[in-house]
Amino acid sequence: MPLTELLASVALTARLGPVHVDASWADITAALGEPRDVLDNRRWPRLFGFGDLEVFVCRCRRVRMVTVQTWTETVQVPTYAGLFPGEPTEADVVAALDRVGCAWEVDSALTFGSQRGLRVPATSATFVFTVPSAGEARLHSLGLPDNGHRCPTAA
Question: What is the residue extent of each domain of the chain?
């Protein structure tokens, strides 16, 4: 499966295997194993990584945001063997979204300067592209944003 097909599926379902906004952190680590600390911060909330998948976890141990970084030469996604070539083109991402029937729109809040954003209204998944002065726009990341979570634990 090409990376663009995988990301189109994530955008359509707002899930990457066991990973999704509101998932239990215990369920994620049970499925994917121990992560790396992206920011080397021991206080909650925390940002963890599994290859190029990053997961922001609230102090109540629920997933708040999910990001797949795609700006590197190769992309590693947990539960999928091997590496994907990084930086797919915007045209390839849009074609993959269209193939799976995933409606999308330009995200004007994320479109400025040398950046363009696309948003999937049904799931709020957001694709962020870098737009070079010459050549094709390339995917920098796919994100699944927070859904307005209010942590039940006291600060």
Answer: 3-144
The per-type count for the chain, helices as H runs and strands as E runs, is 3, 10
Contact at 8 Å (CB) between 124 and 98?
A: no
Cis peptide, bond prior to residue 45, ω within 30 of zero? yes
Given a contact cutoff of 8 angstroms between Cβ atoms, the answer to whether 66 and 21 are in contact is yes
SS3 37: strand
Give me the long-range contacts of 46-51 (CB less than 8 A, separation at least 24): 50/78, 51/75, 51/76, 51/77, 51/78
Global pTM exceeds 0.85: yes
pLDDT in tens, 18-32: 999 999 999 999 999
Q: How far apart, in whole angstroms, are the C-alpha atoms of residue 49 and residue 57?
A: 11
